[in-house]
Amino acid sequence: MNILTDIITGVVRPIADYFKRRQEIKAQDRQQDRAIQQATVDRQIELIKQGMHADASWELESLRAHTSGWKDEFVLILLSIPLVLVFIPRTAPYVMQGFEILEKTPLWYRWLILLIFTAIYGIRIYRRQQSDT
């Protein structure tokens, strides 16, 4: 009986050890994957914080320079006027007529307006994109 037990133990133990080691390796792999995912999330959070800090610093600097502090708000207010007026029944036809007239403006003028908006608002978007990398 002792010999039979030794034979069975000699065959079963290496198989059991193999599966046990395989489970340990899989557990380590999962732990490493979780650590990598956490490190990735932590890095993304840090980049977002840095980007927000950079944006805030850039906007404060532009306000200190007085070059674009009021300009952005002025453009936003100017663009909001037709948006508001189109919902007022008496002024809506005039707004639509104004857009029809603007549609007849030269193409270069419309591109110029687009470039101005890109310069005003696109810089912030670009800086956020750069801080994500």
What does this structure look like?
The protein has 133 residues and is mainly α. It has 2 domains: 66 residues; 66 residues, no CATH class. The protein is built from 4 helices and no strands. Helix 1 packs across helix 4. The radius of gyration is 33 Å and the shape is elongated. The model has no long low-confidence stretch (mean pLDDT 78).
Give a quick precis of the structure.
With 133 residues, the chain is mainly α. Helix content is 89%, strand content 0%.
Features:
4 helices, 89% helix, 2 domains, 133 residues
Tell how many strands the DSSP assignment holds.
Answer: 0
Mean pLDDT value: 78
Distance between the termini: 68 Å
The total tally of domains equals 2
Task: Break the fold down into its secondary structure elements and pairings.
Layout: H1 2-65, H2 69-85, H3 92-103, H4 107-131
